[in-house]
Amino acid sequence: MSALWNMLYQKNHKLLPNGPDFVTPDATFLDQPKIQIIYHDVEEGIPPLSSAKELKYLETQVERARSMTPGKFSGNDRPDCFLKMTKNRLLSRPDSGKDVRHFEFDAVSSSIDYEVGGVLEVLPGQSPAALDAFIRRCSLNPESYITVQPRDAENHDFLNPPLSPVKLKSFIELTMDVASASPRRYFFEVMSYFATAEHEKERLQYFASPEGRDDLYQYNQKERRTVLEVLEDFPSVQMPFEWLVQLVPPLKTRAYSISSSHSAHPNQVHLTVSVVSWTTPYKRKRTGLCSAWLASLDPQQRVFIPAWFRKGSLPPPRPSLPLILIGPGTGCAPFHGFVEERALQSKTVSTAPIIFFFGCRSNNDDFLYRDFWLSHSQKNGVLSEDKGGGFYVAFSRDQPQKVYVQHKMREQSMKIWSLLTQGAAVYVAGSANKMPSDVFSVFEEIVSTESGVSREAALRWIRTLEKAGKYHVEAWS
């Protein structure tokens, strides 16, 4: 602001007749938080219910807590269902450096329905120890009941009907990401107003300034420091809960491609998940909140997981549609469901062929669902060459030169072109790095080579395929 006043004064003295220093440099201003918290007597909250109504109680808690934070969450706050894990199986070799899991869940609160190619959104659980540490650090009463609403009285559309109280600890657990996400710059600025130790105040003001931007990036984003870690690094700061509710990053659902066919597994849903882990520049071990939490669950435990079903970007194909599938790594997840479904359909109707290109590092380390793919590629299976299909694997690290799915596609150039001329649809799933664009480029090359047209004409042909809804990509970072 000081720089702005100076610039305006230089442009036109009449704009600031009292000079650019009409506000003292040391003056500080902090607006009120945009939300207010109302505390309620315990009896106003919902008392613990009988075990028969436990799921309904959980559903109400999730919906109430997440509906109190307008603007942070989109869509329906009420979960479509609650899931209970029934299987947690390691797919990769234990000492391979990768941790890829197959999870199976039963729907326990209501019947479920989804199509292959769909997406499951999961609300992750947070570490009880981290939640307790956050509550202690912020001097909060976990047993109190609260409602959260906008401070602006005019902004109360979402309060109709009026919100019911929810326990403070439940609100934090279900809506505030206290031990995974990093806070934004404004969090440090607001913290500076509540720091009582002078050296902490100066450090926070520096982080919030344009001059401190690079150091803040090194301290915060690059290290992926969590809200709890930041608060513990500045012990003199005691932020009001209203500011914490407003500024702590929201606890977001995580989306995963469904890897099962509902027809093959009624009232179940399966996921294929790579557990995210990395080391920061200062050698801190970090893991993905949801993937690590799911991997830690014991199917014998009674943990109910809030979940939502969404349509993905891979529409379910009809049985008569030939398919060209490319899914390296966990990109194979949706196609596991595709193959399950087509295998079931083939028992009652005539089905079109499928060719699937899978890629991984090594035959021994991370050949996900090896037995499943191989069984369906033999004895008239839906991936068998007898049925006009095929299953091709690229092991990138099993030989001196790296081999990717693109190389295997080139080897099957004639087969791919043959299926394309029969009206096949292309589905690509996996990492959003270079893979989707590299695969697209190989398709251009194949169309150009096999049909004898220029690359430009081949590109136009594939764009026509996209417009016809026959080239689909689902990629994630």
UniProtKB/TrEMBL annotation:
This is NADPH-dependent diflavin oxidoreductase 1 isoform X2. The keyword Cytoplasm applies. Its cofactor is FAD. InterPro entries: CysJ-like_FAD-binding, FAD-bd_FR_type, Flavoprot_Pyr_Nucl_cyt_Rdtase, FNR_nucleotide-bd, NADPH_Cyt_P450_Rdtase_alpha, OxRdtase_FAD/NAD-bd, Riboflavin_synthase-like_b-brl. Keywords: Cytoplasm, FAD, Flavoprotein, FMN, NADP, Oxidoreductase. Residues 78-317 form the FAD-binding FR-type domain. One of its GO terms (molecular function) is flavin adenine dinucleotide binding. PROSITE patterns: FAD_FR (PS51384). Pfam families: FAD_binding_1 (PF00667), NAD_binding_1 (PF00175). GO terms for cellular component: cytosol. The lineage of its organism: Eukaryota, Viridiplantae, Streptophyta, Embryophyta, Tracheophyta.
